[in-house]
Design goal:
The chain is mainly α. It has one domain. It is built from 7 helices and no strands. The longest helix has 26 residues. The chain is elongated, with a radius of gyration of 18 Å.
């Protein structure tokens, strides 16, 4: 996997995942999510203090969200990463800081997407893998150099392996994770 491009891919996919987590193969989850708003409305009407019911993703839906995180990087994000790597190689610390600051929202969004998805899956291994990837994204948000991205493979290889296995078993192999 292109580890130095992972954060950008994750954020790009986060937007996709947040706008449409289900797929046509996941019609059971779609039916459940259609019923959830009516249930939540009825519950809220019955009592003002009741909370919205917790949504639980099927494995296929969770895998769809994860796969969305790993979608193809946008050319503008790739350009920012390339600019930061070049600047670091030449010692241009101001450009490095600016590039990292520009990418920071991507890292934060990525962590939030993984955390949100982890909170909605029942499988403990999938939940743990997503939580580890969320932690990795939070660490990336604190990076002060592009050289630190070399540590990503060690942080993400294990959780990504779990996701690949679980999603393949669920019949939704990850298409965008190398």
């Amino acid at each position: 996997m292109r580890r130095d491009l992972l954060p950008v891919a994750v954020v790009a996919g986060a937007l996709l995942a947040l706008t449409g987590c289900g797929s046509s193969a996941d019609s059971g989850a779609a039916d459940a999510s259609s019923a959830a708003p009516a249930t939540a409305t009825a519950t809220a009407t019955a009592t003002a203090t009741s909370a919205t019911p917790q949504i639980t993703f099927s494995m296929a839906t969770a895998c769809g969200a994860v796969d969305g995180v790993y979608t193809t990087l946008s050319s503008s994000s790739q350009a920012v990463i390339a600019k930061g790597v070049r600047a670091e190689a030449t010692g241009d610390t101001a450009t490095v800081r600016a590039a990292l600051a520009e990418l920071n929202p991507l890292f934060v969004s990525t962590g939030n997407t993984f955390t949100d998805t982890a909170s909605k899956v029942a499988d403990p291994d999938m939940k743990a893998a997503l939580e580890q990837l969320a932690e990795s994204a939070r660490k990336q948000a604190a990076f002060t150099s592009f050289a630190q991205f070399r540590t990503l493979e060690a942080m993400t290889a294990g959780p990504e392996s779990v996701l690949k296995q679980k999603c393949a078993q669920a019949g939704h192999p990850l298409e965008n994770m190398e």
